[in-house]
Design a protein that fits this description.
By secondary structure, the chain is of the alpha/beta class. The protein folds into two domains: 171 residues, P-loop containing nucleotide triphosphate hydrolases (Rossmann fold); 178 residues, Glutathione S-transferase Yfyf (Class Pi), Chain A, domain 2 (Up-down Bundle), CATH 1.20.1050. It is 44% helix and 22% strand. The chain contains eleven helices and 14 strands. Helix 3 crosses helix 4, helix 5 crosses helix 6 and helix 5 packs across helix 9.
Length: 361
Amino acid sequence: MRIKNLNLKNFRNYADESIEFSEGLNILFGKNAQGKTNCAEAVFYLCTGTSPRTKRNVQLIKRGEESANLCATAVGRYGSMEISAALTENGREFFLNGNKINRNADILGNLFGVFFSPHELRLIQDGPDERRRFLNVSISQLSRPYCTALARYNRILEQRNSLLKEKSLDIIYGSLPVWDEQFCKYAATIAVKRAEYIGLLAPLAKSAHEFLTDGAEELIISPEKKYKGSESELEKRLFDELSANYERDIRLGYTVSGPHRDDIDIEINGADAKNYASQGQTRTAALAIKLAEVEIFKELSGEYPVLILDDVLSELDLPRRKKLIERAGGLQTILTCTHAERALCGISANKIKIEGGAVKR
């Protein structure tokens, strides 16, 4: 899969600009605060319907304007496509080949993208919510049933937590079993899909990490052990767990059990990465996970995603820089940096200079 053209109108600091991409390595370069990251963000937004930087549409719209438009033409194994988005402060609309996409789940799975920036170090350094976010975004691109189950699960979780704050215990005890039946159904789907994904991710990330470190370090990724088994087994087990802990949940005012509390264990050379990894080790481990994500997309969808690397080279030494570019060979890569020469590493590339929200031709 590759993007041929991206058009941005009133997106971030872009007024009206068209950018042409080649099949292989594309380098967006220029001084800081010119719009390189904004372009990378736009590509990922069209892939996933989400920004890796903000949840607010208003921040995506050029200051002083009321709306923004993004449009990409791409080609994949099913042929050419055009995917576009129209943003206002209070809403958005997506279109595929001119036809409006009515469900959020249908935005996903059209254009695949894997995004890495310095902020992705949160995947290693921060709490479980960052690792769940990574799983949710990645799996949702590959599985619409997962995306649907996740959306419904989150709505039911919100309703259940509101119910737990109800003053009448009779209402709480009378209503919880009804909510829990659906809650556990979607929870089981989420847990099984995550376990399958991590089963693919772990060996691929380990291999990518060995490549980046010349075998000097070992990366081990494993899921929490509490949700093992088939969907039906998990559904029953979680329902029993919720039922046995009504008093605890009522006392706390929120739901303690469920995949919204999941985490992934990440170790480097046998030590917990979150607590003991250096900045360099953290960066390499996060990169390895993203490179593994690329391979999962190829395995499950039949084609490589667009790899988006935002400001990733600045903290890498030359040997690891070369290894990263080598590993990205064979797929379309959009890379941002301040100096194109640092990124080339002897490889030909489509160099695009960005200056003041415009391509400097």
